[in-house]
Amino acid sequence: MKRERGFTLIELMTTLSVAAIVLSVGVPSFRTIVMDNRLVTQANQFVGAVNLARSTAVRYQRNATACASANYDAAVPSCSATTDWSVGWIVWVDKDRDSAVDANEVISVFAPLADTSSFSSLGTAGFTYDSRGFSLAGGDDLTLCDTRTGETGRFIRVNAVGRTNIARQGCS
């Protein structure tokens, strides 16, 4: 008589129980990792935009700006007067030196933050750099937080010279 090989019901139930326990422990940790990575990505994306504005100013020998966007999805986006950077931001170079964003001056557009993150500065809605790469308005500090509280946010400092620094910061 030929013997059939396979799993018994007890073996299957034991395996499923172990898998359920491992998933119940691992899924919340994975969610935290995803949220932490999202914050790091958003902070790095902002720093990249500021660095892009700075290098563009030097390259074109014209003022270049990274600013919070009033309408990132418009044909010609404009800068916002608000200090809320979660609405998205743009990088543009003032080729004609009229201090206004024109269609051919937009270098890059960044969409609003996808989740319920808050991203605001203490006082500036934009960082403008001159042809030597120096900030015209000085520096500012920005805070990037998501829905969690505690030591989960990011603190971004843009100094008067135009260099950036990212550090962890608590959020409330």
Question: Could you characterize the architecture of this molecule?
Answer:
It is built from one helix and eight strands. With 172 residues, the protein is of the alpha+beta class. The protein has one domain (10-171): minor pseudopilin epsh fold (3-Layer(bab) Sandwich). The strands form two sheets. It has a four-stranded antiparallel β-sheet, covered by helices on one side. Strands 4-6-7-8 form a four-stranded antiparallel β-sheet. Strand 6 (140-145) and strand 7 form a beta hairpin. The radius of gyration is 24 Å and the shape is elongated. The N and C termini lie far apart (70 Å). The mean pLDDT is 89.
Low-pLDDT windows of residues? none
| Helix content range | 25-40%
The end-to-end distance, rounded to whole angstroms, is 70 Å
* Rough outline: elongated
- The CATH homologous superfamily is termed minor pseudopilin epsh domain
